[in-house]
Design a protein that fits this description.
The structure is a homotetramer. Chain A folds into two domains: 2-63, Alpha-Beta Plaits (2-Layer Sandwich), CATH 3.30.70; 83-346, Alpha-Beta Barrel (TIM Barrel), CATH 3.20.20. Helices cover 34% and strands 18% of the residues of chain A. Chain A is built from eleven helices and 15 strands.
Chain lengths: 354, 354, 354, 354
């Protein structure tokens, strides 16, 4: 940490900064410059509260040299984290799927679980095309209290049914600590949605649930904040965190969000955690999902999460951004080749009955 | 709602849109234009899911003519909502304070409750200067799991103690449904923080808690989304919602946030709910708090929320944006005159012992 | 400047950084830290190109401790710049107006010059209400090539006519170097618009034109970039630069722009140049102009720039954000009181015939 | 265009809107709705000024149904524009290159022209790897007046020299109308930089220069604004416009810009003009350029523009985002395969001496 003094800061002001740093238990190293003095804080263990220093007289700004996160960083763990997904019953069809290694995984399915027929059909269709994980919301966070909010616990049962039928792994969202308990009973991956990325009560519950977590980037979250939210989960003892880029807020109303694919190589450099991309929410428009899913894999994503609905025109939510099943199949064919260009391969579902 | 067809959309595509609208229970009114046809959806009750229409063949875009919120809108209720704050014990010092009428209220105090001495001293100091409500967090949402997270329930007891000593009303934050129950026992206003603006489980709990709610605007929330989150609270039966502008995410690192004061007249036009402004979080810098608090009142805010600490240099959180008590007193003097310019007056604390 | 090395950077990499700094003519000061080494660059004269250092092996990031601008900074000149506006003919009605001292100036008038009657009437109306400078565009930068682009040179003649009739000073925009020559013949202040804030050919021409410059902040410009653009003008020898906040790009379509009033105290701290605010473009909505103009003065703006049209419903451009003359008169009454609260006073036009 | 009236707008207010629309020469079609009335404006030829209607009493908002641009739209011209690049001397090495057809072109070279040796070496290196067009700035728009501003006209001569040596086509930037004249003498493509995207004097000069134009998206430009700026060029008679996504302003300081690759399929849908992507400026970081260049091609870009320097550590500008020549060669190998996945192929330079 570097405390930059104002041009013309007095010696007394500099000494006060030095004294406060020492009082906080660190070493202070003043560095006079041509235009102003800076004071280095040495020994930063990631717990220094800059706020106290920022407010001192004569201080112009405090510059963070160390990253504020710890366990999620590449410096803490150089090797990439490979999340191993255990199929239900310990040894099911999805038992061999990994996220963060050489495989690129496809997570696909409808926005929300609507009926047994819908979710089972969707599961079979996306499996056929090459997905290994089924997505589908039992609880849906919606901006309006009057929009469809999901089936709730009955939706979880339908997901379990779809897993039995298809052999796919299940990824579904929990919206509060109570929901984490319910979701954990059924899901192979517990999703934390973008709106809840800084819901710390929920993050702590996720950290203690014993299942891998899919943590979506908040609409206005920096990569640093995304990693700090993941740090909450690791700090509770859960190492199996998969990050997800799903679009950030931008100024252009042409697309729902700005799909920030550069976050993928950025995260890979700063952290050992895997990161996937969700072009359905990232763009909000069906005909943009296919090119941007390809782009995500070309950028190095560890997986893609795509909304696919057996009949998008009848969907209860997000119909306009859901792919038709045959569009998804075409996408998977393209994505397989692109993965190979960069030395990876798309994870394939186990043969039915395996 | 207006469904705009693409240039060159076929008659069959237009008829499909008309049919779907009718199937959804509304009237459809096609309007051929010079360049393209649009189809008006008449009878929108605020529950139409545009997504189903957006995905139909030949549709270029769906334009929302009606607002997606209902009970929070000026059209639902023309008269401004005046939130009446009942002092503890029914008739205490704060019993007469209102938010949203002609009065402008000052909410002030430290970022977080640190000790009895700190919070009681702060309460007395801000009361002396003219605040009628004490702020102070018992639970603090922090980006890093390693930062000070607040005293928790013991902090609530200290707030109760400060109220007894000062006669001020109490405003403090709840971070989950369990927290709402605890906070409700002590606080006169339950705060929902910016990071939780779209934590719907929390909003629903707030809607059922029986106390006025202070709902802070999320970092990347549009005014429409802020109003929709308020709608969640009203939909549960709680009409006493005070909104709060506290800065939105921007691209310039010079200030922590962009303090969007225009949101104040915008909310006043769209909604009957009161809105206050928090220049401490809005700017993140002590020397910007005073001019921007004045600006907030000049823009028509129903109140200001300001961080004041007896000794900012020793604060456990947000020290750099906390005012010294004498700065706050000076601010209150300026704000009183500005309020009068626009036909309002600053609410004054009841005489001690009243 | 501080060059932060990656955790685990080798000694050779650190020495290479030291060597390059020396080769560039500065001193290098390595500082080993708990987690990584940083190398201070001492002697930075504002001309160091960080890019060369950023690309070296082992470098994590380069942190700018010194500001990149020079002559516009408070450190270069502590006293605020007071721009003295000389009336045409040396001693006209506006001869005594200053921007950046204790006075708060009002610049008002229509978006564009449309006819002699329109501009002369507008001049008389805004003068009556208390403006000292008339605004009005002869050239209008418009997003669409098919929108009204202004009257051009004939518009300048009409502005000259309005000055004769009203005694007001004239502020009008130039869009290229040739336009600067024409505008300089007539205007008392040459305006550079937001879209041209980084049009460096234009900035250099403005720096050599011999008239005060009003430099508007670009839609996505940081305060640092605004100050760097002003530096281009000062570097050509023109000290009389007035900055203008006029709204930045944001994510909420409710208002045209985000009116970033915090930029006012921020600029006042970093620079000696005066800064005014334009709530008409800042909000884009007539009924938001009045509260936000009040807020700008409360935040410490050295002036306000407001669109006023004799008949807004007939305006050829920006009608929806132009005030009616009587609204402007009411605004000026409110603004006079607010200016006094913070120890300033609104500049009044000289008596007619003075 | 749809004029939405406020809830409770009077019949007189609605009739006034109808009257103004007719006075403007269009048809008005009132549509009473459940909550409010809307008035359709029929016959919009793209020249309607909404501002006049927005300001009328009782009007809530004006919704644009038609696109504001014309000649650049898909509706004006369904077939994609294929820009044919004529080599200097009519028949040189680049004579057969096209942008916007099935070929994907690579434009590569240093940020700025520094010396004959540097630019000729760079040209040979990027040609070897597979680029068909050489980039390199003779004039450089720099935020600071103290940064290297380019060699100016002597730089153009060096570019001509590099073309002779390598057979590559030349793309270089012009910063004002005078610069357009000079650049046109040498360049095969005249570049308009991001900061000048709304410099209308420059756009008009570009529209009359007789050479293909590369128009970069401004930092805070919406896609609509980018297309409107292109419309300025087409309106002057120049159809050969290539758009370029190069990153937009975002809130996360981790990368210089947000590289908005979704703009590629968005532009392809709205317009017939080709669009390429510049990952060097889009990300600002060398190790992000390669994955994001791959992603751009996977997303459907008609080309990529990449900064490559023979010795990035010695570059006078943008060294940290310039690729080493062997990195660029590796990138080209990967990009060739990805292009084929989506039915395209990378344009190859003509054999030397052809």
């Amino acid at each position: 940490m570097l405390i930059v003094m104002r041009h013309g800061a007095t010696e007394a002001e500099i000494q006060k900064v030095v004294a406060v740093i020492k009082e906080m238990g660190y070493q202070a190293r003043p560095m006079p410059g041509a235009q102003r003095t800076a004071v280095g804080l040495v020994g930063n263990d990631g717990r220094v509260d800059a706020s106290r220093l920022e407010g001192l007289a004569g201080v112009q700004e405090v510059i963070h040299v160390s990253k504020p996160y710890k366990q999620v960083s590449r410096e803490w763990k150089v090797e990439p984290t490979v999340v191993r997904l255990a199929g239900a019953g310990g040894g099911g069809g999805g038992g061999g799927v990994t996220v963060g290694g050489t495989e690129v995984v496809a997570i696909a399915g409808p926005c929300s679980v609507e009926s047994e027929k819908q979710i089972v059909t969707a599961a079979q269709q996306v499996r056929e095309a090459g997905a290994v994980i089924l997505r589908g919301g039992a609880w849906k966070p919606r901006s309006s209290p009057y929009s469809f909010q999901g089936l709730g616990r009955p939706g979880l049962k339908l997901l379990a049914r779809a897993r039995e039928e298809s052999g796919l792994l299940i990824c579904t969202e929990a919206m509060d600590a109570e929901g984490v308990r319910w979701v954990t009973e059924v899901a192979d991956i517990v999703q934390i949605g973008a709106r809840n990325m800084q819901n710390y009560s929920l993050l702590k519950a996720a950290g203690r649930c014993g299942k891998p977590i899919l943590l979506k980037r908040g609409l206005s979250a920096t990569v640093t904040e995304l990693l700090l939210s993941a740090e909450y989960i690791l700090a509770e003892g859960n190492q199996d965190v998969i990050l997800c880029e799903r679009g950030i807020r931008g100024f252009d109303p042409t697309t729902r969000n700005v799909f920030d694919l550069t976050a993928i190589p950025v995260v890979h450099k700063l952290s050992h955690l895997p990161i996937i991309a969700d072009p359905s929410h990232g763009t909000g428009l069906r005909d943009k999902v296919i090119p941007m899913a390809r782009a995500a894999v070309a950028a190095g994503a560890d997986g893609i999460m795509v909304e696919v609905h057996p009949d998008p025109e009848q969907a209860l939510s997000d119909g306009a951004q859901s792919l038709f099943p045959d569009q998804f199949a075409q996408l998977m064919r393209e994505v397989r080749v692109i993965a190979e260009v960069i030395g990876r391969r798309v994870a394939e579902p186990a043969p039915v009955g395996a």
